[in-house]
Structure formats: structure tokens, C-alpha cells
Design goal:
7 helices; 238 residues
Length: 238
């Protein structure tokens, strides 16, 4: 039977424009290639899982507005079951993205994402209980992330957490995470150990094991990743 996967997290509408240079304060520039895209780390995870053939539902919060409709259409297009909240009094999260010669800077309004409260998570407990895996990131309130992990542990639902954007995690949370997937910079911030060279990778992995994570996986950019499985540390090239 195919695993049932629940992604809980953020959904944003990305407003993207390309600029010939970085604007200075008060300056008006003419841009190009304006696009309105569906985004948010949570919704991106859900769509990626759907593209890989996973049976996936998405629990997030959006506004009852035009941007929210874009996100709902994205879910429908890729076969992601939307199980979230549509809020009357809070706008959909929006990211304003200016791209300059391949680089970018972003101004984010979290909007409805910050309204995904622990109370809403509790109301959706049955969704967590019915899922095999629950996938998370950190673009919703930390209290809500902790509540998801608590309920998942209660119902033996495996938790997959990507700790981005980085923030300090409660130490009690690690033992409730089955698959923990930081990048090398997040791993360094959380353990004090930068995972390079290989000896330091092993130290960082062991630190996460000591904190209670079942399966830590540190992504290493072009070098691939390092992970813990069956009592051993494995290096996987990109």
C-alpha cells in the first residue's frame, strides 16, 4: 500500500520580477519578466512529493483572496489534497522577489501562515493519525511545529523535518523527529560543528543522534549528503 503523506507548513504566492541592477533607496527601475508563482516551503514540498508519485495532502493556511486561489489551483493541478484553512480576515502569504543577474533578494509577508496555530493543528489531529509520514519545515509558528510532532509521536506517524528557515529548536523536539534534514550551515548552527571534513560530518551526525533524532541527514550541496542508517554513518555523493 502506498504511504499516505501529510505536509504541514507554509504556502505563499511569489511575485517575481527581474531587474537590471539592485535598486537604491527611493529609486524606481523598469523591470522585466514579471511572474506570479505558487510557493512556500511547505507547498513546494507537497508538490514535489506529488510529482514523485506520492499520495500527499497539504495542511496550511491561506487567505480568501486571489492569491489563495492561485495556490488552490496549484494543489488541484498536481493532485495535492488541500486540507488546510481558508481565512476571511488574513491575506495569503506573499513573497516579493527581485532577481538581479541570477541573484535575488526577498521581502516576505507571512500572512495566513502565521495563523496556522496549535489550536488548528489539534483540530486536524485525525489527519496526522491517518498519515504514515508528516513532513514539516519552519515557516509556520514553532509552537505549531511542536504540536505536530507531539501528535505524530502519539499516533506513531513518522516525522520528517527540514529546519528551514533556520531558528533555534527546543531540545525536547529532537526526540520526536524521525528524519531530520538540515543543510551544512543549519547543522553547524544547531551543533556547533561544521560538517567538513568527514570527521566533522560524523561528529555532527552523532550529535543529532545524541539529541534523539532517529535518522539525521545532512545535505552537503555539491558533495551530496551524509546520513545515519542501521548504526553506521554513510556518505552519499550528489
Amino acid at each position: 500500500m502506498k504511504n499516505k503523506i501529510l505536509v504541514i507548513g507554509s504556502a505563499n504566492t511569489d511575485l517575481v520580477i527581474h531587474s537590471p541592477k539592485m535598486p537604491t533607496l527611493g529609486e524606481t527601475l523598469t523591470g522585466s519578466n514579471f511572474q506570479i508563482n505558487a510557493g512556500g516551503k511547505g507547498l513546494n514540498q507537497a508538490v514535489a512529493i506529488a510529482k514523485l508519485g506520492g499520495k500527499v495532502s497539504f495542511l496550511g493556511a491561506i487567505g480568501k483572496d486571489a492569491n489563495g486561489e492561485i495556490l488552490l489551483n496549484q494543489c488541484q493541478q498536481y493532485g495535492v489534497e488541500f486540507e488546510g484553512e481558508i481565512l476571511q480576515d488574513c491575506p495569503t502569504g506573499t513573497a516579493m522577489i527581485t532577481v538581479v543577474k541570477g541573484d535575488n533578494f526577498i521581502v516576505l509577508n507571512p500572512g495566513a501562515n502565521h495563523c496556522l496555530t496549535p489550536q488548528i493543528i489539534e483540530q486536524k489531529e485525525a489527519l496526522i493519525a491517518q498519515s504514515d509520514y508528516c513532513v514539516l519545515q519552519l515557516e509556520i509558528p514553532m509552537d505549531s511545529v511542536c504540536k505536530v510532532c507531539e501528535l505524530a509521536q502519539k499516533h506513531n506517524t513518522k516525522v520528517v523535518l527540514n529546519p528551514a528557515p533556520y531558528c533555534q529548536l527546543p531540545e525536547s523536539l529532537f526526540s520526536k523527529i524521525d528524519y531530520f534534514i538540515p543543510n551544512e550551515h543549519e547543522a553547524c548552527s544547531l551543533t556547533g560543528i561544521f560538517p567538513d571534513p568527514k570527521e566533522h560530518c560524523i561528529q555532527a551526525i552523532n550529535r543529532f543522534i545524541h539529541l534523539g533524532v532517529s535518522h539525521p541527514i545532512i545535505t552537503l550541496g555539491e558533495k551530496g549528503c551524509v546520513y545515519h542508517s542501521d548504526g553506521r554513518v554513510v556518505f552519499q555523493p550528489a
